[in-house]
Amino acid sequence: MKELKLKIAKNICYTKLVYIRISKKLKINLSNESIEKLIKKTIFTSSKIEKKGKNYYVYNFDNQIRVTVNANNFRVITTDSLKTKK
Q1: How many other C-beta atoms are found inside a 10 Å radius of the C-beta of residue 11?
Q2: Dihedral pair phi/psi, residue 25, rounded to 5°
Q3: 3-state DSSP assignment of residue 77
Q4: 33, containing H or E segment
Q5: What number of other Cβ atoms are within 10 A of residue 20's Cβ?
Q6: Among residues 34, 32, 38, 43, which one has the least CA distance to residue 10?
Q7: How far apart are the first and last CA of the chain?
Q8: In 10 A of CB 48, how many CB atoms?
Q9: Dihedrals φ, ψ of 80, to 5°?
Q10: What is the structure's pLDDT at 1?
Q11: How far apart are the C-alpha atoms of 41 and 19, rounded to whole Å?
């Protein structure tokens, strides 16, 4: 799994719209650079990585974040909060 984390982190890329999507879904207001740092930290400290279809799902249960990454081009698609909604 360590090699996969390195591969994803090394090749990861972002679109302009994904920064907005991440801020909205995680309810945070960070700069693009800070979002990139958060995503890389999430990847390196992830608990689990699943490949389903054409995507990787990177789970970080400590920070309660899931990052969805396209497995072909390593583009971040979205993030989700894993916190249970009450």
Answers
A1: 11
A2: -70, -35
A3: strand
A4: helix 32-44
A5: 12
A6: 43
A7: 33
A8: 11
A9: -140, 145
A10: 84
A11: 16
- Helix ranges (H only) for 12-71 are 16-26, 32-44
Side-chain-facing half-sphere of 35: CA atoms under 13 Å: 25
| Residue written as token pair 């969805």 | 68
The pLDDT value recorded for residue 85 is: 53
User: Angle of helix 32-44 relative to helix 16-26, nearest 10 degrees?
Assistant: 70
CATH of segment(s) 2-81: 2.40.10
CA angle (34, 46, 27) in 5-degree steps: 40
The percent of the chain in helix, strand and coil, each rounded to the nearest 5, is 40, 30, 30
Q: Could you report the per-residue pLDDT of 4-62, keeping only the tens digit for each? A: 999 999 999 999 999 999 999 999 999 999 999 999 999 999 999 999 999 999 999 99
Task: Determine phi and psi for 42, rounding to 5 degrees.
Answer: -60, -40
Model-level pTM? 0.90
